[in-house]
Amino acid sequence: MQRQPLVIGNWKMNGSKALVAHLATAFASQPELLGQVHVAVCPPAVLLNAWQQATQQLAVAAGVQDVNEHADGAHTGEHSVQLVAEAGAEYVLIGHSERRQFYADTEARVAAKLRQVLAYTEQPLRAVLCVGESAEQRYNEQTMMVIEAQLESALATVKADQLSRLVIAYEPVWAIGTGLTASPEQAQQVHGAIRKWLENKWGASGAAVQLLYGGSVKADNATALFAEADIDGGLIGGASLHADEFLAICTAAQARSR
Ligand code: PGA
């Protein structure tokens, strides 16, 4: 089955209104690119509105980097699924390793956030579940064990008819923001195993889930990564803050649509 290439930019706690305008202008100059590759940008939530205004005429989506696991209530500083959907987010990152590491996103919390997103049907929100192993876990040959445990926990209650709203990003923790990238072979090995895991659980609809690679993807390594059979695109941190780099990465993903 042909899976649409997808590239998502994760600005983390970076960016500005000026960057919103700059990146939107850069995409406006390449409309045919957006016809072949799905592109989404997850700026800080407070810039979501500016991003949407700037990209109104463009086929580029908006997303958020996190969501709260509760539907509403006394959770100062947090955003519910309904709030981010009403603000125009189409993608929600869940379980990014920085949130797991520094903001107490336990396996249980990640699973609850995913449930919230998939249960929300007013608008077609898509969840991007991030999984990945640490350097130590890779060194100890625990990579697949760790990732399968993360999948098992987060996806335990997901139903087959929700899978079209699920994306999985494999992001080895040791490759995020470090300049170290998994080699295309290393990344493919894990992506292939994730796809098999999904297929075993749900058959063809599991195998059709888009799988993104993330971790120091740049213009100069994207083509080789996206050439691998089970890498359907990328989750891009640092390079998504630079219009030329980010567009070059999106262009590299375009090859998968042919
Ligand atoms: P990076 O970040 O591209 O800067 O390594 C990726 C991510 O954290 O999603």
Description:
This protein is an alpha/beta fold and 258 residues long. It has a single domain (6-257), classed as TIM Barrel (Alpha-Beta Barrel). Helix content is 43%, strand content 15%. It has twelve helices and eight strands. The protein has helices at 17-28, 31-36, 48-54, 81-86, 97-102, 107-119, 135-139, 143-155, 184-202, 204-207, 219-226, 243-254, and strands at 6-10, 38-42, 61-64, 91-94, 126-131, 166-170, 210-214, 233-236. It has an eight-stranded parallel β-barrel, surrounded by six helices. Helix 6 packs across helix 8, helix 8 packs parallel to helix 9 and helix 11 runs parallel beside helix 12 (243-254). The longest helix has 19 residues, at 184-202. The structure holds 2-phosphoglycolic acid. 2-phosphoglycolic acid binds at residues 10, 171, 176-177, 214-217, 235-239.
